[in-house]
Structures are given as structure tokens and as C-alpha cells.
Specification:
Strand content: 15-25%
Family: Belongs to the SEC23/SEC24 family. SEC24 subfamily.
Structural class: alpha/beta
Helix content: 10-25%
Oligomer: single chain
Number of domains: 3
Bound molecules: zinc ion
Protein name: Protein transport protein SEC23
GO cellular component, one term: COPII vesicle coat
Largest sheet: 8 strands, mixed
Shape: globular
Radius of gyration: 27 Å
CATH superfamily of the largest domain: von Willebrand factor, type A domain
GO molecular function: SNARE binding; zinc ion binding
Length: about 550
């Protein structure tokens, strides 16, 4: 049966009257007499509904009468893109924007957008349409560089456009011009996704590339020090990676590499034609380099068996008398050297904080008292922040999988992931029986989930509004552009917006997020999400 159009009238989900029949609600308690009046009936407490009564809500992002508020983010819904992007990709804190600044400050609401450019569509939703304009590339406003979208106006028989972001007009290139219908819209508006959809993927022409699109690369950096070996984390990591080699997407193009570290760093050459990988030890952890960088990465299809053999033998090689020292900071530097020519995703599986080499972290918690404990929330020093920025520059994204038994200085280490668009997973205290399935699943998802590579993201707003700040995992080198070495389908960021001047009357407030990225298939694209919202005077 087709899903119903939301809840029937009078049965608003979460309303007290409907709550007792709501699926999943706690059963009403059998109470009687005076006792009933004392106790609070949980069914009577209003709470946000997580499920509509009958299937998913259908939501069209625009209708003839304008824009309606999107369904709550914690409900099930199916979106039809009708000229505004889906709320999965971009959602504003307000669905009607106040015209005047005074009105805005009176209502004290945060002004901003939650952006998740690579979000996965739900079942029943169309994916983002791909538009190839050839060498011409997408039409962009000459003044503000906004991308063509359903809210661009065309005039003078379709030869000129007016930008909905800055109001500037410009000539439409001849090969893109089209006659207008009686309603003033282009006759081809319904055939061109960029003129009728809020979200499109433009194929990027060569002008948008500084180098050929990169191949997907996964590099595993494993802690082989005593803490990791004795807790079982090292063996679990080796076994998980071995199992996952078969699930790597595009095994004919994707490259993998592996290194281990304790008081020194061990790299493994995956040169084709060897029976087993040759181990290369880098004992100088103060001045790390990557030995024979050409063979540290191998195409999965070509080196899978060699790597599987290595991962089988690693736990036995490190079982007896593993060193207590862990040169994690130096090892990350070494892995970055290995990844500089290609970029890629670096998985760091660590059980202890760095104790030797670059970026040593002391146990700050031990010496903290009630007056200094708040300092633990800030990094001890900027070493890992700078290392993260260096990684971002070479399109290296760092994921931290931390498996300590006790305290680990996360505040100092996490800038590595934050500056590079990576993730932090913490399993503490690491227990192989409980945590190894989770470690396997988290690693698997990090490898197989849809991901955009070497991304550059920018959010534009229409006249009267400006972007003030960005919050999330990325590296920001300029006021407007964010570098995101890898942006997966789970990554979202918050963009705060400021009212600069009175919004132009008769216009909508428009927002556009553009992500220039490389697909895992090796195509350079620009994903553009546009949201145009009504402006209100009251
Ligand atoms: Zn413009």
C-alpha cells in the first residue's frame, strides 16, 4: 500500500490524546484511586514523536503556494525535490527569514544552516541528478559566482539572466540560451535538472582541477606497542583489516598500504612480484621519512594476497616482549610522507598516547585538580593541530580508532581528525570480546560508505545576509572556503549567518552550498544545493 500523507487530522503524533496508541509508547500503568493522581503517567508527557503514525511523510520542497516547513529531522519522510534542496542536505534554523535585523534580534533565534552535502537519500527518494555541460561548465553569476539554480530569472527572450543571490544581470552564453514561455520561465526548465531541482551534481570541466582526480587510498597505521598487543586490540585490528580487504570498493583502482609502530616505525613494501612484503624499519623517529615511497601503496587487486599473509603473521611477530614506547606522532608524520603524492584516508589504530618521538603527550589528568581540570578540554600544545593542517594540505584525511585502557589525551589528539574531515572512535577500556565486533563494523563503514574526495566547500547567501562562522570537521585557510580532504555521507557542518541589512523586498532569502569534489570513480564534480526561503515582515 502507498504510504499515507502524514497523520490523519486530529491525531497529531506526540499529542497527549494520541500518545497511548502510538507504537512503541510505554504501556499505560495500571493504577487506581488516590495513587493514580500522585504518579505521573508517562503516556501523558508530551514528547517529540520519532515515528509518524502511518509510514513516512511525503514532503515536496516547494509547491505552487510556496515553501512549507520541512518535517522534523527525527521523523521518517520521503522528499521530492521541487526546486529547493532536500532538508537532508541543507536545513535552515528558520523556515521564514525576518526582513529586518530588529525583528531578528527580538526573536533571539540562532540564524544558520545545517549542511550535509553528501547525505544518503532515503528509500523512495531520487539521487542527485548529474549534469554535464561539457567544457562550458555550469552557468555562474559573473559577480557573486553563484551557480545557476531554479531561482535564477531569465529575461530578454532568454538572452539575459538575473542572479537571485546578488541581483546582478549577465548574458546567457549562446549555447545555453533558450526561449521563454508565457509564464516567463524557460521552455526547457523542466528538462534541465539545474533549472528545476534544488540539488544537482555538475561535471567539473578541466578549469576546476589542479591535478588529475585522485584514486581512493586507504593507509592503516597500527599501534604494535605493549598496550595494544596485550589488550588484544592489535590482533583484532589485523584480523578486521584482513577481512575487510575483500570489501574495498573499486579494488582495481583503490590503493592500500600498512605500517606498524612501537619505539620505531615499520613500513612494508608492496612491490609486485614479491612473495611477501619486505619490512623496512625507520628507527630515527625524530626525523621521520618514508622509505621507498613508490611501493608503500599497492592496488588492492594486485597486493591483496600479500597483505593478507602479512596481516596473518603480524600478531605472532609482535607477541613476545613488545616495547612499551609508542611513537604515534612520528608514525603519523611518516604515513603523511608516504601519502603526500596521492592523498588518501589514514586510519590510525592506537592504544596509548604518544610516549616517544614527535608530539609526546604526558598524562595531564594525573596532575589535575579541581582548579586546573578545565584545562584538560584544550589541547596541550598545537602539534597535532599543525599536523592536521599539513595532512589537509596533501588531501590526507585522518580517522582515529583509539583503544586505550584508561585516560588518553583526546583534546590534544583530535585536531588531527577535526582538521582533515576525519572521525574519532573511542573504545575505552578496550575489551576484545565486546569491542572487536564494533571496531570491525566502524572500520567497515569508514571504508565502504559513500565519500567525496579532495573537497572544497563554500556556502553563499543572498543580499542582506552573510556567513559568519563554520563549525565541523574541515580545514579553513580562507574566510569563505573550507578544505575537506574527505567528506563522507555522515558529515554535517553548521554555518552561522548574520543579518547585515534589510532584506530586499519581494525577494526570497537564498542559500547555496557548493562542494567541489572527486567521486570514488575518479570524476571531478560540483555538488550544488540551493535553498530559497520566504522573507517575513512579522
Ligand atoms: Zn550573483
Amino acid at each position: 500500500a502507498a504510504p499515507a500523507m502524514g497523520a490523519p487530522p486530529g491525531a497529531r503524533p506526540g499529542a497527549p490524546a494520541a500518545a497511548p496508541t502510538k507504537p512503541g509508547a510505554p504501556p499505560a500503568q495500571a493504577t487506581s484511586g488516590a495513587k493514580a493522581s500522585e504518579r505521573i503517567d508517562p503516556a501523558q508527557i508530551p514528547r517529540a514523536s520519532s515515528k509518524p503514525l502511518f509510514g513516512a511523510t511525503q514532503y515536496a520542497t516547494r509547491t505552487v503556494s510556496g515553501v512549507t516547513s520541512p518535517p522534523a529531522a527525527n521523523t521518517e519522510f520521503v522528499v521530492q525535490d521541487a526546486g529547493n534542496c532536500s532538508p537532508r542536505y541543507m536545513r535552515a534554523t528558520l523556515n521564514q527569514w525576518p526582513e529586518r535585523f530588529e525583528l531578528m534580534s527580538m526573536c533571539s533565534m540562532p540564524l544558520g544552516l545545517i549542511v550535509q552535502p553528501m547525505a544518503s537519500p532515503a528509500q523512495g527518494e531520487e539521487g542527485v541528478a548529474v549534469v554535464d555541460m561539457g567544457e562550458m561548465g555550469p552557468l555562474r553569476c559573473l559577480r557573486c559566482k553563484a551557480y545557476v539554480n531554479p531561482h535564477f530569472r531569465f529575461n530578454e527572450q532568454g538572452r539575459r539572466y538575473t542572479c537571485n543571490f546578488c541581483g546582478a544581470s549577465g548574458d546567457v552564453p549562446q549555447q545555453y540560451a533558450c526561449a521563454l514561455g508565457a509564464d516567463g520561465r524557460r521552455l526547457d526548465a523542466h528538462e534541465r535538472p539545474e533549472l528545476c531541482r534544488g540539488s544537482v551534481d555538475f561535471v567539473a570541466p578541466d578549469a576546476y582541477m589542479v591535478r588529475p582526480p585522485m584514486d581512493p587510498v586507504f593507509f592503516f597505521l597500527l599501534d604494535a606497542s605493549a598496550a595494544s598487543v596485550t589488550s588484544g586490540a592489535f590482533e583484532n585490528a589485523c584480523r578486521s583489516i584482513k577481512q575487510l580487504l575483500g570489501s574495498v570498493p573499486h579494488p582495481g583502482r583503490t590503493k592500500v598500504g600498512l605500517a606498524t609502530y612501537d619505539r620505531a616505525i615499520n613500513f612494508y613494501s608492496l612491490k609486485p612480484g614479491q612473495t611477501q612484503p619486505a619490512m623496512m624499519v625507520v628507527p630515527d623517529i625524530a626525523n621521520v621519512y618514508a622509505p621507498c615511497p613508490k611501493y608503500l601503496l599497492g592496488v588492492v587487486d594486485e597486493c591483496k594476497e600479500m597483505l593478507e599473509g602479512l596481516l596473518d603473521s603480524l600478531p605472532a611477530m609482535h607477541r613476545d616482549y613488545p616495547p612499551r614506547e609508542a611513537a604515534m606522532g612520528s608514525a603519523v608524520k611518516g604515513a603523511l610522507e608516504a601519502l603526500k603524492p596521492t592523498g588518501g584516508r589514514l586510519f590510525v589504530l592506537a592504544s596509548s598516547a604518544p610516549t616517544v618521538g614527535v608530539g609526546v603527550l604526558k598524562d595531564r589528568q594525573a596532575g589535575a585538580n579541581s582548579e586546573t581540570v578545565h584545562k584538560l578540554a584544550a589541547p596541550a600544545d598545537p602539534t597535532y593541530f599543525r599536523m592536521g593542517q599539513a595532512c589537509a594540505e596533501y588531501q590526507v584525511c585522518v580517522d582515529l580508532f583509539l583503544t586505550p585502557q584508561g585516560y588518553m589525551d583526546l583534546a590534544s589528539l583530535t585536531p588531527l581528525a577535526r582538521e582533515t574531515g576525519g572521525d574519532v572512535q573511542l573504545y575505552t577500556p578496550y575489551n576484545p570480546a565486546l569491542d572487536s565486533p564494533k571496531l570491525f563494523n566502524d572500520l567497515r563503514w569508514a571504508i565502504v560508505r559513500p565519500t567525496a574526495l579532495e573537497g572544497v566547500l563554500r556556502v553563499r547567501t543572498s543580499q542582506g545576509l552573510t556567513v559568519t562562522d563554520h563549525y565541523g570537521h574541515f580545514c579553513q585557510r580562507s574566510a569563505t572556503d573550507l578544505d575537506v580532504p574527505q567528506m563522507d555521507c555522515d558529515k554535517a557542518l553548521y554555518v552561522s549567518v548574520k543579518h547585515e541589512e534589510r532584506l530586499p523586498s519581494g525577494m526570497e532569502a537564498a542559500f547555496q552550498c557548493a562542494l567541489l569534489y572527486t567521486t570514488t570513480e575518479g570524476q571531478r564534480r560540483i555538488r550544488v544545493h540551493t535553498l530559497s526561503l520566504p522573507v517575513t515582515e512579522v
